[in-house]
């Protein structure tokens, strides 16, 4: 009887390194590939391009693979205990990074029943990271981007995004990443196309003055330089027939979702206070009709309509917010966004607690502009599924530009300001084709 050889693998992009590991494993016995689930992969890096089912079909048909089982978490212990393989085969690349600690535990566990860990040398100059970079440079088709948000929400308990207001800011969101204390790469999952920042970047008021055609120009600028899913800030959605047409246009472009708020009349930004804030909330019945019209207009199941509730902003109470959430979901909303201007975030947490008990619960989106004291961990623990930093990049860029202009005026030269920004050559080098 052949010995059992367990080979853990993500296999989102099959390359010669994978084939080499399987070849070495096949020399030892019966090869069982522990294929990481989408959820397991998303726990330590980006959501895979292919679904688990698609990857499974490919791996099952690779020469040397005898069977494929699911590994549903980053840690190896559950499957190792279940199957007790004679060998665990993994490329030497797991000696560093987020899989290092799981490696140590796997080695110790295998030793308890006399199993052996085999680590073939990682194939030189071949890595999924390099292939991912090449794919990003090529771009993605609209239908793939369109489905990416739902895919991420299915794979991860919480996704996070930040606003982009032009192509350059979208390039930052696309590429920026940091390693956390566990060595896991942290990056933004999506781009928020805010009406406030889009209008402000054009020097226009945030009152739905910038028309749809102009806003679509910004969408296209962003689509051309990034691969991440986009959530579009649709303001009130305008009149019902207009909203249906907007949904068709966004879906055709590959935008993943639109957020519309339950206000009517001349749109005013929700964060305004005092006499400047003249908000009128839409009726539940009329807003539900708008949601239904949008859902009827879309062609695919991938596009999402997220309903933004303004009850807490308008001070009409938690009960009204909860009632509206239930009614909007019944009308077909794919998600709920709850908004607040309170600095402590307490009413957001209270809403989350009630919302989590909904039988027909949909993804919950929050925008911690006015309550930055709440961390992502706080919000995820409360039940938020989508966290969006809605205007921080534009606010930061305004401050930086103002400081630079002031410095040049004050010193009558650019030398003092030059230390605070990239060189002209670096700026030119950012754009491919220069």
From TrEMBL:
InterPro entries (UniProt xref): Archaeal_FAD_synthase, Cyt_trans-like, ICL/PEPM, PEnolPyrv_PMutase_core, Pyrv/PenolPyrv_kinase-like_dom, Pyrv_kinase-like_dom_sf, Rossmann-like_a/b/a_fold
UniProt-listed Enzyme Commission number(s): 5.4.2.9
SUPFAM superfamilies, per the entry: Nucleotidylyl transferase (SSF52374), Phosphoenolpyruvate/pyruvate domain (SSF51621)
GO molecular function: hydrolase activity; lyase activity; nucleotidyltransferase activity; phosphoenolpyruvate mutase activity
Keywords: Hydrolase, Isomerase, Lyase, Nucleotidyltransferase, Transferase
One Pfam family hit: PEP_mutase
All copies of domain Cytidyltransferase-like, residue ranges: 12-130
Record protein name field: phosphoenolpyruvate mutase
Source species of the chain: Campylobacter hyointestinalis subsp. hyointestinalis
The organism's taxonomic lineage, starting at the top: Bacteria, Pseudomonadati, Campylobacterota, Epsilonproteobacteria, Campylobacterales
């Amino acid at each position: 009887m052949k010995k059992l050889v367990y080979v853990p693998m993500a296999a989102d992009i099959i390359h010669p390194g994978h084939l080499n590991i399987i070849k070495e494993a096949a020399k030892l016995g019966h090869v069982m590939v522990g294929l990481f689930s989408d959820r397991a992969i998303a726990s330590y890096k980006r959501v895979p391009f292919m679904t688990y089912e698609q990857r499974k079909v490919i791996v099952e048909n690779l020469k040397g693979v005898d069977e494929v089982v699911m590994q549903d978490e980053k840690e190896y212990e559950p499957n190792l205990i279940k199957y007790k393989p004679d060998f665990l085969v993994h490329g030497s690349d797991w000696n560093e990074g987020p899989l290092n600690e799981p490696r140590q535990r796997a080695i110790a566990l295998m030793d308890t029943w006399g199993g052996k860990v085999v680590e073939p040398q990682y194939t030189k100059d071949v890595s999924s990271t390099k292939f991912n970079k090449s794919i990003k440079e090529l771009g993605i088709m609209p239908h793939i981007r369109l489905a990416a948000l739902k895919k991420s929400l299915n794979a991860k308990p919480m996704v996070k995004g930040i606003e982009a207001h032009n192509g350059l800011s979208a390039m930052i969101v696309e590429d920026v990443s940091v390693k956390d204390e566990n060595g896991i790469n942290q990056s933004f999952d999506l781009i928020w196309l805010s009406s406030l920042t889009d209008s402000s970047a054009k020097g226009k008021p945030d009152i739905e003055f910038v028309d749809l055609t102009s806003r679509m120009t910004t969408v296209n600028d962003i689509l051309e330089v990034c691969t991440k899913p986009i959530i579009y800030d649709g303001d009130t959605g305008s009149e019902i027939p207009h909203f249906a047409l907007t949904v068709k246009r966004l879906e055709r472009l590959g935008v993943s979702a639109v957020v519309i708020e339950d206000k009517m009349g001349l749109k005013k930004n929700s964060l305004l206070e005092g006499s400047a804030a003249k908000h009128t909330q839409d009726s539940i019945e009329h807003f539900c009709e708008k949601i239904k019209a949008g859902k009827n207009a879309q062609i695919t199941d991938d596009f999402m309509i997220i309903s933004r509730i303004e009850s807490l902003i308008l001070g009409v109470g938690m009960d009204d917010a909860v009632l509206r959430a239930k009614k909007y979901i019944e009308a077909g909303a794919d998600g709920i966004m709850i908004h607040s201007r309170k600095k402590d975030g307490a009413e957001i947490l209270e809403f989350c607690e009630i919302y989590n008990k909904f039988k027909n619960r949909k993804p919950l989106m929050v925008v911690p502009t006015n309550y930055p004291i709440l961390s992502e961990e706080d919000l995820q623990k409360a039940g938020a599924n989508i966290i969006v930093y809605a205007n921080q990049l534009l606010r930061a860029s305004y401050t930086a530009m103002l400081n630079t202009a002031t410095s040049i005026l004050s010193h009558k030269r650019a030398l003092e300001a030059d230390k605070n920004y990239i060189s002209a050559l670096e700026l030119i080098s950012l754009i491919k084709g220069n």
